[in-house]
Amino acid sequence: xxxxxxxxxxxxxxxxxxxxxxxxxxxxxxxxxxxxxxxxxxxxxxxxxxxxxxxxxxxxxxxxxxxxxxxxxxxxxxxxxxxxxxxxxxxxxxxxxxxxxxxxxxxxxxxxxxxxxxxxxxxxxxxxxxxxxxxxxxxxxxxxxxxxxxxxxxxxxxxxxxxxxxxxxxxxxxxxxxxxxxxxxxxxxxxxxxxxxxxxxxxxxxxxxxxxxxxxxxxxxxxxxxxxxxxxxxxxxxxxxxxxxxxxxxxxxxxxxxxxxxxxxxxxxxxxxxxxxxxxxxxxxxxxxxxxxxxxxxxxxxxxxxxxxxxxxxxxxxxxxxxxxxxxxxxxxxxxxxxxxxxxxxxxxxxxxxxxxxxxxxxxxxxxxxxxxxxxxxxxxxxxxxxxxxxxxxxxxxxxxxxxxxxxxxxxxxxx
Length: 416
Known about the structure:
By secondary structure, the chain is mainly beta. The chain folds into 2 domains: 25-323, Jelly Rolls (Sandwich), CATH 2.60.120; 332-415, Sandwich (Immunoglobulin-like). The chain contains 3 helices and 25 strands. Strands 1, 5, 6, 8, 13, 14, 15 and 18 form an 8-stranded antiparallel sheet that branches. Strands 4, 7, 9, 10, 11, 12, 16 and 17 form an 8-stranded antiparallel sheet that branches. The chain has a 4-stranded antiparallel sheet with strand order 22-21-24-25, with no helix packed on it. The termini are far apart. The relative contact order is 0.15. The model is unreliable at 1-20 and 316-329 (pLDDT under 50).
């Protein structure tokens, strides 16, 4: 009888933990309505007030700035003036009873080489698992980017830092979400995603993994809800999951990535210390191209929600399974750690050229293998712990990277 009671208690706590993971803890919410306003603070800005249309967690100062997990909030510009960039809370165009947050960018306000309007949540503590939901509207001007003559790889709309670079914190790392164009010439806009280590000694970013999705198009001239889930972890436990849902439409999975969400050499990651959940950041060339066509970059945001420890809804009825992106298996090696040699193995979901590289923690190349994947079999490569000159490398942590035309994966290998 006692054993059955213990079992029931264990089951009950398991159910409670599962429910808490599903619903999480709401940190903050705002629909940018009554009493909320953007105010200048030095060369940047802040949002103050309380959204009276929501029941709780709705005060920009008391609930967001003073939250124990959030360091501080502000709207950052990094230069310029109100004729070049701004953030404002305005009546929604065509629907004046609703208010939205507008990001407007018409000039490369940062040293005339790039433009920036972004929300900063900086100095956060203990944010290891976060979920965000926000409605987004891209005006018709965004369609002009479809004819931009080159590929677009830099138009950032959100960014997440696990240790930042500007405070010279060791093992800096970032995940960047943007709007891009995959080809030269006219094409549709799609979402792009990448993760990068920052190496202190070389003072440069190294791409760890990246994803594209050429099925889901970026909605323009239509409100859509953008929802993401981000969990800190290594190549087996880190996760980025993102969906979009146009108003009145079906939810679509854009990215579902299991990979490093912290620096690959960080043995003690401590959460997402800085996040830019709302961002408009791009090059002077793209801003000038819009101006040459009589257009301006701007984004409207509404119905913002931020949770801690809230997992995504993965029920099959919540999104269109037909567009869920296939994610290749992770690179793996055995044994790991190793002393003599180790077997590196991977497979892709279609025949294509690949490049497998091993580098040290400073980004120096150790070994490179190039080939074409055979879909029916796993690709295998024995590494004997030697470099290109057949000299044994020092014991330590090494990064194994797999790159194809539209995929970049990373795996950590330890030599003893």
